[in-house]
Here is the input.
Amino acid sequence: MISKWLIKENSYYDSVTLMIITKEIEARDDVENAVVVMGTDLNKDLLRNVGLLNDELNKTTANDLIIAVKMKDESKFEEIVAKVEELLNKKKSDGGEDYNPPTLDSAIKYMPDSNMVVISLPGAYAAAEAKKALENDKHVMLFSDNVTIEQERELKELAVSKGLLMMGPDCGTAMINQVPLCFCNKVEKGNIGIVGASGTGTQEIMVQIDRFGGGCSQVIGTGGRDLKKEIGGLMMTLGIQALAEDDNTDVIVLVSKPPALEIAEKVLQTLKKCGKKAVVDFIGGDDELVTKYGFIPAKSLEDAAYKAVALAKGQQAEEAPLFTESEEEIDKMAEEERKKFSPDQKYLRGLFSGGTLCDEALKLFTKEFGGIYSNIPLTPEYRLQDNKKSYKHTALDLGDDEFTVGRPHPMIDSYMRQQMIMKEAEDREVAVLLMDVVLGYGSNEDPAGSLADHIKLAKKNFADRGQHLCVVAYVCGTKKDPQNYEQQINKLKDAGAILMPSNAQAVRFAMKVVRGL
Amino acid sequence: METNPYNKVEALKIGYKVKDILNDTDSKLKIHSIFEHAINLIDHSDWIITLLPENYSAGPQTVILTQEGFAEFKSLVFKVMDICDFRNLINTENAITFTGRTIDESTLKGITRIHRNIEYFESILFQRGNKGGLLGESSIYSKYAAPIIAEIKDFFVQGKYEQAADNILELIGLGPGLTPSGDDFILGILTAFKFCLATQDIVCDLTKKIINEARTRTNIISYNMLRQGAMGGFPEWVEDMAFSIICGNSEDIDMAFSKILRIGSSSGSDISAGMLFGLKLIARRLWDDF
Here is the structure.
C-alpha cells in the first residue's frame, strides 16, 4: 500500500462536501483507507496512528484541508485528485451531472431517451404530472395516493391506448428490467414475472422466489385499486400482456386482494390467452375460479412463490409445506414458549409495517380462530374502537393512514412501531408479539437494529413482573438486499426474537403458541 | 465589490453577539469563506459572523436572511478576502434578535422524566444519528477518542473535574468536518452543562481553557463555535435539543432531533453525542441533591 496526499491550504469546505469526498474515495476498490480532515494537531496525530502522516502533512495548520489516501496503485492517484477537485468545485448551476431539473418538462428535455417516470407528489398534483408523462410516451410509476378513482381510470385508459404502463396510484413496488423501483428487494434474475396489486405482497413473493432458488424477470405493480370495478383490472391485464410478450418470462404470478367476479374472470381470461403457466394468489379469494381457468391457486404468498418456482423449473407445483422445520420441532418450540407464560397471558399482538403481510396474518388467523381485531379488519365487527389500543388478539397495519399522518411509513421509520412495542409491553395479557421486518431499497437502512433495543426492553418488562414475552419475527428480504440480511436476522435473534422464514410461517407459529392459552 | 445602499438585503433574525461585533468593528468585515448555504464574514479579532438563508439554525453569531436575500447577497460577493460593509448591505432593523434560552430550576422537569428523556434521546441518536464522526463505534475517529472519553468519565465519577476538563480539551480538532467532530462533541457537553445548571466546581476552568487553547488547535470557524459555547452561547437548534430533553417530552425530542441532524453532515450527531455524554455525566450528580 502506498500513501498519497493532497493539501488545500486555507480551505474551508462544508461538511457535506467533505463527507461526499470521503465516501467517493473510500468506495474505490484500490483504496484501503481515506482520511479527509482539517490539519488540526489531533487529526495529524490520528493520521500518524494510521500511518498516513509525513513531514509535509505535519506542517499543515488547522485551516488547511488534508486528503490522505492509502492505495494500491499510485498511478491511480491522479484520478482521485481529479475527482476530488471536481467535487470541491462543483456548482449546481453548471448544468453538469448533478443538474436537478425542476419540472417534468425540463427533465424530459434533459433526458430525452428516458422511458419511465416515477412520481411521488401530493395527490392534487400527481395525476396531472402522470398524465403529462403518459402524453410524452413515458411509462409511469405513481407512488402517490390521494388520486381520485376517476382520475385513475382516465390515466389507465390513456396508458392502455398507448401501450404504456401506468403503475399506480399507490404503487410502491416494481422491478422493470432488473431495475428496482421504490420499495423493492434485490432478487435473483430469473424467468418468473409478477403482476401485483399489493406492495408487500409482491415483495414477499419476490423474496420467497429468491429463497426457493428461482428468480424474477419483471415485477409490475398496478396500485391497490386496479381490480376494483371502476378500474376493471386495466393495468393487471396490460401487465399480463406485457409478460406474455416478454421472452424472459416463462411463469406468471398474479397477486391481489380478491377482485369482483367479473374482474377476476376478465383477468383470468387474459392470462389464458397469453399461454404461459401461472400461479394466482387472490389472497383468501376463490381458488375454484382460478383452477377452472387452468391455473394454480396459492394458499399463501409463500405458497405462490413455491409453486411458481416449481413451474419455472418444469416441475409439478406442489403445495408449500406449512413449516420448513418439522412439525415436531415447531410444536416443541411452541410448547417451550407456552410453559413460560403466566396464567393471565393469552393474546397475540401483531405489529406490521406491510399492509398485505398484515392482511395475510388476519386471514390465516381468522381461518383458525374465528376473528382478530385490527385497523384493517376482515369484517366490521372486528374493527378496533381505538386503533392505538389493542383488544384481545389484534394485528395492526402500521402503514395505514392513521399511523402515518405526518410521519414516514414504518418501513422507513420505526418510531411508531417502537412506541407500539412498548405499549403492548405494558399489557399483562399479551403473550406473543408478531412483527415483520421488511428489507430492500427504500426501506430503513437498519430496521432490525431500530427495533432490537425495544424488543429487549419489552421482554425485560415482562421478565421483571415474572412473565414471558414471546416475540416472533419475519425478515422479508434477501441476502442481496442492501441491509445485510444475516446481520438483520442476528440482531433480532440477539434481542430474543424467534425468526421464521416466511410471513405465513411466522403467523402459523404465533398461532401455535397462543392456541389453548 | 459592489455595495447597494438603497436596496439592502433583509435580515430576519440576528444573533445577540453579532450586534457586539458590529459595534466594535464599524461594520467592515472581510469575506472569510463562501459555501452554498453559508457565508462567513470575519473581523479583525477573528470573530466570525455567519450569514444563512432561512430554514437554517439561528445562533449568537449568525444572521438569517430570506432565501432571496441570501441569494442576492451571494451574487454581490465576488470572492474571499473582499471587504464587506455589513450595514450598507444588510438591513437588520426589523430582524428578531436571537437571544438564546435562559434556564432555571423552575423549568426543569422531574428527575424521573429527565432520566427517561435521556434514555429516549440515546435510543434515537443511535438509531438515526450519522455514524461518520464520533458516534459510530467503527470510525477511526471514535476509536481514537474512545480512551480519552473513557478517562473523562472516570475523572468525572471520581470528582476530579479539573482533570476531566483537561481531557475534554484533548478532543479539540479531532475528526472530519469543517467543525471537527471533537469540537462538536465538546459543544454538546457545554450545552448539557448549561442546561443542567452545572455548578462551577463541575465546569471548573473548562470554559476559560477552551477560549485560551482552542484557537491553535482547530480552525477559525470551529474556534468561533467553541468560544461562543464556552461563553454560554449555542445555536438555536442545539439549545432546542437540550431544552426538549430537560423540559419536554418524546415528541419535543423527536422534533428537536430532526432539526439538529440538519446541522452540517455529522455535526448534529456529534453535538448530540456530546450532549448525551454531558447529560449522563451530571444528571445523577446534580439531581441527587434536589
